[in-house]
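Look at a sample.

——
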Amino acid sequence: MGENDTIAAISTPPGEGGIAIVRLSGPKALYIADGIFSSSVKDGKKRKRPSAAKSHRMLYGFIADPATGEQVDEVLLSVMRAPNTYTREDMIEINCHGGGIPARKTLELVLNGGARLAEPGEFTKRAFLNGRIDLSQAEAVLELIQAKSAQAEKLALEQLSGGLSGKINAVRDGLADICAHMEAYLDFPEEGIEEKTEGQLKAGIEQARENLLALSRTYEEGRLIREGLKTAIAGRANVGKSSLLNALLGQERAIVTPLPGTTRDVISEYINIGGFALRIMDTAGIRRTEDIAEMEGVRRSRQAIEGADLVICVLDGSARLTDEDREVLEAAEGKKRIVAVNKADLPRAWRPGESGDCISVSAKTGAGLEALKERIRESFTSRAKDPAEAAPGAIITSLRHKTALERAAQALERGGGALSDGMPLEVVSIELRDALDALGEITGMVTTEDILRKIFDEFCIGK
């Protein structure tokens, strides 16, 4: 499969909808479209061919099988000529009627006409390979598609606009200047190039290292914004955990019965609170049981609590605290937690103040839910900044980026140490080059096929 092939795919999700889009990109895109598209002809006018149309024009007509003349669909066809396209190649987008059959038949005709089916993310990969975007921007495209909150969308757009690339490239440019000076002095000592003082070199290297470490430290904020705050709803059996999940979601997601042990596994859903995504997990009730399936559910509940960013400990305010309640509170000890005292619609059997910072709620009537949501939002905003409050691209969301930043910082630390120890400038230069390579992996200046495959395989086909 060559990069000069013409590729095609359905770029819209399957199922019924208003439109479905078939996308083509490559040197034969316009001519493949010529073979299957017939424009609407009136008063004997010559039919319009996509290959003869001006760029960024939309044509109205029909898709037809060139072998039989049978019409497949009534469409709008967009013509986009290189280089002013998403991939910097000639592109065609065919707007079919929504539903599986028109788009699928259109795609079949496109493939029969000489295109091949695109691989996952191949349109965006071509945008990267053709220099329209760098690798961090390509990753931002995927994060924009997968954004689960307004904040995640905003952060992805910041990175797509080049905010992160700008910060990385600024550090790379500074390091490249230091490298160029040192290597010029080493390669051409007879030219008498003035050597920067050791203090200047160390200061430049240290400043670059501090900038990279500061950027690396934003990963936790970025992860919370991108993935959502992992929140476990924990408690003993029958305190109303599933009812609370349903109340927060506004739908009957979890099965609720009066029988203990109804929830056997962790149920995970996303909810948006104050513009932030919350990945909320309903867990099995923590209790002692001889049921093998329920025992596994309890084990997974403890695992969910351990891996959560926030734990909502649910207690039953209409019954006295039990050893199992205390066991739940103990399991969440040391975690960011909120104690939700449920069943506020029933007479109280104890005062909530006994277990610390509590919120009284009723999953049945909805009482206290807004206060609970506000407390959750406060927990989120105390750990993750709004991207609008930071400089563009100042928050990273990718573990790949964090790892590359840390590798670059470590190389700079070694380079600064070598300089302080009086080692030859050649050694310092090697470490700086390692740092430059690590940063280049973020933007794609330095990359391998394995890195590209891992990134673009996460995309859907058609993007």
Summary: The first helix runs from residue 29 to 36. The chain has three domains: 7-118, 137-218+392-456, 225-381. The chain is about 45% helix and 15% strand.
